[in-house]
Amino acid sequence: MIEQLFGSKTRVKLLKLFYGNPNRAFYVREITRKIDEQINSVRRELSNLLNVGIITSDNTNNKLYYEVNQKFEYYDPLLEIFGNKKSVSKNTSNLEDLGIEEEFKNLGNVEMVVFTGQLTRDSSAPVDVLIVGNVNKNAVDKYISSLEEDEGKDITYTVMKPDDFKYRHQIRDRFVTQVLNAKKQVLLDKSDLLKINN
User: Which residue blocks in the chain are alpha helix, DSSP H?
Assistant: First the structure.
């Protein structure tokens, strides 16, 4: 039904990819791999979305990257429809429906996951992934390896206990401040840790 409403299956998959990953940018071949569609239909739909203003593009290291345009006038309504991480911190009963809890529950008791650095193309961030919680180190290593394989690059990450993160956030620790000031994608924030001291 959504495909009929929005015109094509490829377009719907692209909207889900972009709105499910705000602050993430993707190049064409990466997109075709992630949504499993033909490159020609992906290029055609990317062009349509660019023309409407739903996404933006820019060239970095001779690669054309595409990213959701958060200034688009209908960004919020489209995020409600296609964003799979909306209201995660507010509505924890919805976590399972959104697939977030499923993704991280094998790691242990995860409170927060933030993607930044290479994953959002922000070189000011000291790491690519910040995980806050009481986690199983082997499970986290496995998750990061899987992410590296998916992204095709080495990923740096840091794990912190919730109390350690709260303390370092409150005293405006340099590392935590750099991560939080960088361009980021918050995948999970169960206890509104990012609102501490704000």
Answer: 2-6, 9-20, 28-35, 39-52, 75-82, 95-98, 100-104, 137-151, 162-170, 174-181
- Within the chain, all domains assigned CATH 1.10.10.10 are found at 2-82
Tell me the C-alpha distance between 117 and 101, whole Å: 23
Q: Are 106 and 139 in contact (CB under 8 A)?
A: yes
Task: Provide the token pair at 166.
Answer: 């709260």
Please answer whether residues 195 and 136 qualify as being in contact, where contact means their C-beta atoms are separated by less than 8 angstroms: no
Q: What is the CATH number of domain 2-82?
A: 1.10.10.10
Residue closest to 146 by CA, chosen among 161, 162, 129, 134: 129
Q: Exposure pattern of 40-66 as b/e (b: 16+ CB <10 Å)?
A: ebbeebbebbeeeebbbeeeeeeeebb
Q: Are 9 and 19 in contact (CB under 8 A)?
A: no
Average pLDDT for residues 135-159, to the nearest whole number?
A: 90
Position 3 confidence tier, pLDDT thresholds 50, 70, 90: low
Indicate the pTM of the whole model: 0.69
